[in-house]
Please model this.
Amino acid sequence: MKKSYKVNLVVAGAGLLTLGLAGSAMAFHSGGVAECAGCHSMHTSKPGGKFLLVGTDQSSTCLSCHEHDGDTGPSSYHISTADSGLGAGMSPLQRTPGGDFGWLKKTYQWTLRTVLQTEAGETHGHNIVAIDKGYVADATNTTAPGGTFTAANLQCNSCHDPHGKFRRDSTGAIVTTGAPIIGNGSYTTSAVPAAGQAVGAYRLLPGAGYTSSTGTTIFPGSPAAVAPSTYNQTEATNQVRVAYGAKTGNGSATWGQWCSTCHADMHTSSGKLVHPVDQNLGSAISGLYNSYVKSGDMTGTSASSYLSLVPFAQGTSASDFASLKANASNALATSAGPASSDQVMCLSCHRAHASGFPEMLRWNNEYEFIVSNGAYLSTSNSMGRTEDEWKAAYYDRPATNFATYQRGLCNKCHAKD
Model:
């Protein structure tokens, strides 16, 4: 009975690591490798599958727990809304910082100047292949934009190490051996490892030397961050702030360096990247961020300027996880904005999994307004969505949080509106 219960609790590497609370006795990954029977079955594995997995493929195995049919969400470690919750006019349920993969299944159509427009669901995020859950490879980008990684091979374990070998030791170094993992290293409640101990790398994100079953991916190191132990929630009132670290020690990497594993040409001055990443904001940009409240309103202050729709990486010193923990929260109506030494990163504009907008952006960048005449876009400017779908994509924020005519959030750093 005990073992069958644990199988029902499998969370196999899609990135959200516990059953709600870090350090809980019910945690599955708990920062490292879980019990083998949670993901593999010696005699009853999925027909046609590989590696004796309980799902047909790696991502299906992950989603056997990270997606739950009948979930009314947002809830705990779920990162995908089941098909039953994705009908016409229905919004994906989950509000994790990385987003809900369900947006990949939401294709929108509308007419603009008598011409039918189509926004394919596959444009909304990383198109993981999960046969059991109806997720298929990106049919347009057959390789990663700016890179060579094959779209048909994209699985959860392309970006997460399901065996969780990467760990942060007491010196702050990211290693794979040398000290046992005592618990999860992703949360504000995570233990501080003593000498001879380690905690798991953030979200099981791999570092140098990682080889997934879908191909070798040369990560430069593991990126750093700290999340509140409860992170999947509406942001109608309180924001969820994940404190991202710019680079925190030996074996770590900036978020831009880590993403460049698959998107290399987007991270060189001669490639496809125009906007800088992993660079200090400087006094001018950080000043604009801190002053910007909404379109036409530059009366903000640093103490209350943080916006989870435009996060940044803290320019922390080596091993300074204490400062990351101090800034991560799920209960902040307001929070402090960046200093000049903080950095822009890929996640400043994009969600890691998927979003309600093309290119997994955190806000709509396909139209001049986010809010028009005091409401999210509707009727003639709906872009195929209901107002409730727009609101869900902004994690349930009331339209009144923005200006009556709110323009794109590039302006949070550039204030051109």
In short: Residues 1-25 have pLDDT under 50 and may be disordered. The two ends are 60 Å apart (CA to CA). The chain has one domain: 2-414.
